[in-house]
Amino acid sequence: MLPVALDAMGGDKAPDEIVAGAHRAVAELGVQVALVGQPEVLAPLAGDLSIIPASEVIPMSADPGSSVRRMKDSSLVRAAEAVRDGRASAMISAGNTGATMASALLRMGRIKGVSRPAIATPIPVPGHSPTILLDAGANAECQADWLLQFAQMGVVFARTRYGIERPRVGLLSIGEEASKGTPLVKETNALLAASDALEAAGGTFIGNVEGRDVMTPDIDVVVTDGFTGNVVLKTLEGGMRTLVNAIFGAFGTSPETQAASEVLIPALLPLYSTLDPDNTGGAMLLGVDGLCLISHGSSSATAVVNAVRVAKELHDAGIVDSLRAAVAPV
To answer: What is the CA radius of gyration of the chain?
Structure first.
């Protein structure tokens, strides 16, 4: 396996936590990691890790498209070029999500037959494999045939990443009935129900699902447009964070709750670990002609290790080739 190109300049905790995660990934996983970024910043931290030089850093607040076109020597662009040129097996970034996507799209290109790439984000489901939500933010406005293709790619991702033999696909709407939803949802529902493409990809369409179904074991892949998907993702993140903080905050309010915490906290830690975004390994940009993982902005060293682990697993499983087969033009 070629090295993983890690954007060492991207993320709220870059470069220190990102580089620390790279060192851990090499030690714990045996995967080679190449840091991408400003050599003068990274050299004191890199140790034995190789550095792909990049003089520019795209800020989190920058406009994705224009910054990628203007800042050709940015760490994101150089990471994407390393994958394109066969010098890296995957790229990972916790930086500007839009710029990560734009870099991968403009430098790697799309898989033949893919209309639009989509961000596939695993949503934790306690006691069960995660639900794959896509699109989680790549395409604010969509067409029905794009959503059909998202469903195909989501099935491949769910099967490859989590070993689900025949993933169940639901279309996010405001009710289970096919007659409910926006014109786009209604058109997509009819297309998913009538098309053989999803069956050919190895998935089963189970109809419309609602927001409350996303974190249940009743569904494996949830398809929606990128605007709605990103709202769902951020709402779930905020809700889970508030709930976890409230539970742990209650444990110190009295001697009784403090005593109860000694019993309950060990029992709750596995749940906390399941909900911790650092343990998911990030989202994958499906549809580009290469492996691109997007980690959350506050990624720690642990998040980097898990992202590298996912990159290795998806690389070894040949997910890009599987995606090519699933969406190949007839």
So the answer is: 20
Helices (H) and strands (E) in the chain, counts: 12, 11
Question: End-to-end CA distance of the chain, in Å?
Answer: 32
Listed in sequence order, the residues at least 6 apart from 223 whose beta carbon sits closer than 8 Å to its beta carbon are: 134, 135, 147, 150, 151, 154, 169, 170, 171, 172, 188, 192
Phi and psi at residue 180, to the nearest 5°? -100, 155
Cβ contact 44:58 at 8 Å: no
CA 54, CA 43: separation in Å to the nearest integer?
Answer: 13
Burial classification of residue 189, based on how many CB atoms lie within 10 Å of its CB (0-12 exposed, 13-18 middle, 19 or more buried)? buried
Beta bridge partners of 221: 132, 169
- Cross-strand bridge partners of residue 170: 222
Q: Scan for tokens 């309950």, then name that residue.
A: 264
CA neighbor of 300 nearest in space, from 96, 1, 16, 2? 16
**Are residues 137 and 268 both part of a single domain?**
yes
Domain that holds residue 220: 115-279
Per-residue pLDDT tens, the chain, 330 aa: give them: 899 999 999 999 999 999 999 999 999 999 999 999 999 999 999 999 999 999 999 998 888 889 999 999 999 999 999 999 999 999 999 999 999 999 999 999 999 999 999 999 999 998 899 999 999 999 999 999 999 999 999 999 999 999 999 999 999 999 999 999 999 999 999 999 998 989 889 999 999 999 999 999 999 999 999 999 999 999 998 998 898 888 888 888 898 898 888 888 888 888 778 878 888 888 999 999 999 999 988 899 999 999 999 999 999 999 999 999 998 875
Which residues does 15 contact at the CB level (< 8 Å), separation at least 6? 8, 9, 35, 37, 41, 42, 45
pTM of the model: 0.92
My answer on whether 153 and 260 are in the same domain is yes
CA distance 166 to 103: 32
Write the CATH number for 105.
3.40.718.10
**Alpha helices by DSSP H, the chain:** 16-29, 39-46, 64-70, 75-84, 97-108, 144-162, 183-194, 197-201, 226-250, 255-275, 301-317, 319-327
